TrEMBL record:
InterPro entries: Asp23. Residues 1-23, 141-160 are annotated as: Disordered. Pfam families: Asp23. Belongs to the asp23 family. This is Asp23/Gls24 family envelope stress response protein. It comes from the Bacteria. It comes from Pseudonocardia broussonetiae. Residues 1-15 have a biased composition (Low complexity).
Amino acid sequence: MSTPTPSATSTTVTPGGIPARLADDTTQGKTTIAASVVQKIAGIAAREISGVHSMGGGVSRAFGAIRERIPGGGTGASNIAGVQVEVGEKQAAVDLDLVVEYGASITELARAVRRNVITAVERMTGLEVIEVNIAVNDIHLPSEDDGTDDVVPTQPSRVE
């Protein structure tokens, strides 16, 4: 008995309106995995690679830093800076925006990130990762380690 293979863009929607993928459909029930789970796995796997300084472009990093300062603002799938996913029933595609450490070989770093993301997502979800697109948006220089991290400049408080 053969089943048709859905395209990478087809998604199942959970009752809460959250896109999910059909991970397992048996006579004993269904298992779905939210796209936010795939997004989080991909982000963690990318950050595990030495030479990745941070994720996201300058604007998304700045908004992320602001969100983290707001109580309850640092949670949720949309808050994973620099990681976008498209999840179907059997496949996923991942787009990553990276800031790399100065001196790292970008081509070797991209290969290692791609390999780690594919391995982690496929192992944990059972999805076939069809592509991992990587955009390097910035280089982090060692001289930038003064604590400001190019995110949001903080001004001294006028009141005590």
